[in-house]
Amino acid sequence: MGRLLTLLSSGAGGGAAASGLLSFSEPPAPGDQVTLDDQTYTYVEYLTETGAKAAAVLTFSSSDPPADGDTFSFNGTTYTYVSGAFTAPNQIAVTANAGTAMNIFAGFWNNGSFVGSQISEGSTRDTNFSAAVATDPDVTLTLRAKDAGTAANGLAVASTIGNAAWNDTATAGGADPGDAVPNELLISPTPEDCGYAFAAAIGVDFGEEGNVIGTGTAAPTAAQLDESNYDSGAAEVPVIARAAGAAGNNIVTTATGSALSWGDTHLTGGA
Questions:
Q1: What is the pLDDT, as a whole number, of residue 51?
Q2: Which of 10, 62, 78, 98 sits CB 3.0–4.6 Å from 139 for a disulfide?
Q3: How far is Cα 97 from Cα 66, in angstroms, rounded to an integer?
Q4: pLDDT at 250 over 70
Q5: Predicted confidence (pLDDT) at residue 74 exceeds the cutoff of 80
């Protein structure tokens, strides 16, 4: 991007630059848009240029662990929970709670850990996928392809665990990388990180092209990030006109979706 940031809170003769604030109540939905001045930015689940990695998510409705005889499967391999001694590959020891059970499985899946103690010898795992566990607000196990693309879509998953279910019957969401699309902003799990993507688009070069913003993303002509008042840990992004004066009050601000809001339909306070 190579943007040059020129911050103006006041101009020659004591004039003031118009300003505004974009607030995030939650992460935007795919397709939500933000307009500042002459640029419109679109939030997306993945950047077109990077593609997306297929995944499947197993979610527990309570903290109860899988019971003896419960199973779940991935791409034809079935894992069975047992309360006694191991008698075959792909058996897992019953544990005290769901979080512990999933962390043990993720350790095995990612690193081959716990074999012989919590996982039976000879157990298999798909090294083309990684495992991640979350415990708040619900215990979840996410199996995600390591590479983007459609090839990892459609791998069957199933579960007989009474308090756990997959989000679908097969892995999904993989997309092949394509040409870069300027002004794409990546949706992140937190509103603060989603705000950071917008800040990276309208501010100085944060080095985020191809990471959280599309390559070729353009900064607004007459407005920019108010870097002196920006806090990356806050769910809001301050903006300021590039020049002092009342003309900055005409800089347009719009947003779609329920997660995003400006204080007004244009910057204010310019004089």
A1: 97
A2: 98
A3: 8
A4: yes
A5: yes
User: What DSSP string describes 46-67?
Assistant: S-TTT-B--EEEEEESSSPPPP
Question: Under a CB-based contact definition with an 8 Å cutoff, are residues 131 and 143 in contact?
Answer: yes
Task: Supply 73's token pair.
Answer: 């499967």
Quote the CA–CA distance of 81 and 91 in Å, as a whole number: 6
The CA distance from 151 to 161, in Å, is 28
Structural domain spans, the chain: 12-50+179-262, 55-166
What is residue 189's predicted lDDT score, i.e. its pLDDT?
92
Q: Which residue shows structure tokens 């566990």?
A: 133
Tokens standing for 32? 């939500």
Cβ neighbours for 117, distance < 8 A, ≥ 6 positions apart: 93
Predicted confidence (pLDDT) per residue in 212-234, tens digit = 999 999 999 999 999 999 999 99
pLDDT in tens, 121-156: 999 999 999 999 999 899 999 999 999 999 999 999
Cβ contacts of 22 within 8 Å, gap of 6 or more:
34, 36, 195, 198, 236, 237, 239, 253, 255, 260, 261, 262
Q: Which of 264, 200, 194 is nearest to 24 (CA)?
A: 194
Is the Cβ–Cβ distance between 140 and 134 less than 8 Å?
Answer: yes
User: How many other C-beta atoms are found inside a 10 Å radius of the C-beta of residue 81?
Assistant: 20
d(CA 71, CA 92): 9
Taking the CA atoms of residue 186, residue 192, residue 196 and residue 198 in that order, the dihedral angle to the nearest 10 degrees is 70
End-to-end CA distance of the chain: 30
pLDDT of amino acid 207: 86
